[in-house]
Design goal:
The protein is of the alpha/beta class. The chain has nine helices and eleven strands.
Length: 369
C-alpha cells in the first residue's frame, strides 16, 4: 500500500463491513477478522493493492531465528498440492539486504516443512505462481502470510496507455482521503486517462471493482473452498445505483479523453461521468459547492507547463469555484504556489517513490468575472 494512504484503507475496511483496523507498519493496516472478511476485502478493496492473511507475526528478523518459526506453520493446510506458488518479500535489514535471497530462505523453510512430514511440496514457480506467500521484514521483526489475491489488486482491466498514469489504488486512496460522496458535485479538470474520476465515482456510488473470484488466490486456497465466493461477490454489488450529484472530468488532450471514455465504459461508469475537452480556465463546473479532486502536472520535467496548469486551476477557482473544496496531488512544492491559495491540510504520501502531498484547499473568495 502507498505510504500515507493507511487512513483511507482503514476507512474502506469499515465500509466493507470490517472492524476498526489496528495500527500497522507504514504502508499497511492490520484487520482482525475471519476468512469471509478476508474474501470481502480481496474482492472489494480499491485503495489497497494487496490483502494479506497473516499467519505469523513478531517473527525474529534474522534468518536463523525466523526459519525454524516458519517451519512450524502448517503450510500443508494452506498451499494447494498442485498449484504453483512463490514467495514475495517486502523490506530489508542490515543482514538481509537482498529480497531474492530472503525469498529463497523462506521457500526453503516451507519446503522443509513438507519434507519433514513426508509430503511433496507444491511446485515453486515465481513467474507463474497462483499463490503468493508474503514475507514482510519490518523494524524489529518479520511477519508471514498468504496473499489472498495472488497478484496486485490495483489493475482494473482498462489497458490504459497514458503517460505516467496514476495507479488505481492510489487514486482510490486519494478519493477516500478527500471524502468523496454521491451527494456532492465532483470535478477533475486534469483527468488525463480517467483514473482519478473513475475511482472517485465508483467509491461515491458504492460500485466494487470488477474482480471475479476465480481470478484470485482465494479460489484455490484449501481453507476457502467451502465459502460461497460468488455469493460474497454479489453481496458487494449495490442493488441499485443511487441518484447522485454531477460528476465532471475534463482535459485539454483529446487522445487522453478518448482513453478515459473507454476506461469508464469498461467499468460501467460512463453514464455517471460527463467528459469534456477543455482548458482548465474554461471549464464550467456543475452547480456547487462541490469537490475538485485532481492530479495536475507537477513540473518534474516540464516546469513551465505545470506552472501554467496550477495558475489555470487558480483562475478557475477564483472565477467559478467559490465555496468548493480542492484536493490536489503534488510532488513538487515549488509549483503549487502558482495556485494562489494556502492549503489548509497537507497529507504526506509516497507516490512511485516520490514524496508528495495531497493538498486540501477551501475556496472562500467570491466569484469574479
Amino acid at each position: 500500500m502507498t505510504a500515507g494512504l493507511e487512513p483511507a484503507a482503514a476507512a474502506e475496511v469499515c465500509r466493507l463491513g470490517g472492524p476498526e483496523p489496528l495500527s500497522g507498519a507504514r504502508g499497511a493496516v492490520r484487520v482482525p477478522g475471519d476468512l469471509e472478511l478476508g474474501v470481502r476485502l480481496a474482492l472489494g478493496m480499491r485503495s489497497a493493492p494487496r490483502v494479506i492473511l497473516e499467519l505469523a507475526e513478531a517473527l525474529p528478523g534474522e534468518a536463523e531465528g525466523f526459519q525454524p518459526e516458519l517451519a512450524r506453520i502448517a503450510w500443508e493446510e494452506w498451499l494447494p498440492r498442485e498449484v504453483p506458488w512463490a514467495v514475495r518479500v517486502t523490506g530489508t535489514t542490515e543482514e538481509l539486504r537482498s529480497p531474492l535471497h530472503t525469498a529463497r530462505l523462506v521457500k526453503d523453510s516451507i519446503r522443509d516443512r513438507f519434507t519433514a512430514r513426508g509430503l511433496a511440496s507444491p511446485p515453486v514457480d515465481p513467474r507463474g505462481a497462483r499463490v503468493l506467500v508474503d514475507f514482510r521484514l519490518e523494524r524489529g521483526g518479520a511477519s508471514a502470510g498468504i496473499d489472498l489475491g495472488g497478484h496486485s489488486l490495483h489493475a482494473r482491466g482498462t489497458g490504459r496507455q497514458g503517460a505516467a498514469p496514476l495507479r488505481e489504488d492510489v487514486a482510490a486512496g486519494l478519493a477516500l482521503l478527500a471524502g468523496v460522496d454521491a451527494e456532492r458535485p465532483l470535478l477533475d479538470p486534469f483527468c488525463g486517462t480517467g483514473t482519478m474520476i473513475a475511482e472517485a465515482a465508483a467509491l461515491a456510488l458504492g460500485i466494487p471493482p470488477q474482480r471475479p473470484p476465480a481470478t484470485l488466490a482465494v479460489s484455490v486456497l484449501p481453507p476457502f473452498t467451502s465459502l460461497p465466493l460468488e455469493e460474497i461477490a454479489c453481496e458487494l454489488r449495490p442493488e441499485r445505483i443511487p441518484l447522485h450529484a454531477p460528476f465532471l472530468a475534463s482535459d485539454r488532450n483529446p487522445r487522453a479523453l478518448a482513453e478515459a471514455r473507454a476506461a469508464l465504459e469498461s467499468q460501467g461508469l460512463a453514464r455517471h461521468v460527463e467528459l469534456e475537452c477543455a482548458e482548465v480556465e474554461t471549464v464550467e463546473p456543475p452547480d456547487g459547492p462541490g469537490l475538485v479532486l485532481t492530479n495536475p502536472p507537477w513540473g518534474l520535467r516540464l516546469a513551465d507547463e505545470a506552472a501554467g496548469a496550477w495558475r489555470g486551476l487558480g483562475t478557475l477557482a477564483r472565477q467559478r469555484l467559490s465555496g468548493w473544496t480542492i484536493a490536489a496531488l503534488s510532488g513538487n512544492a515549488a509549483i503549487t504556489r502558482h495556485l494562489g491559495f494556502k492549503a489548509e491540510r497537507r497529507i504526506p504520501l509516497t507516490v512511485s517513490g516520490i514524496e508528495a502531498r495531497l493538498l486540501v484547499y477551501t475556496v472562500r473568495s467570491a466569484p469574479r468575472g
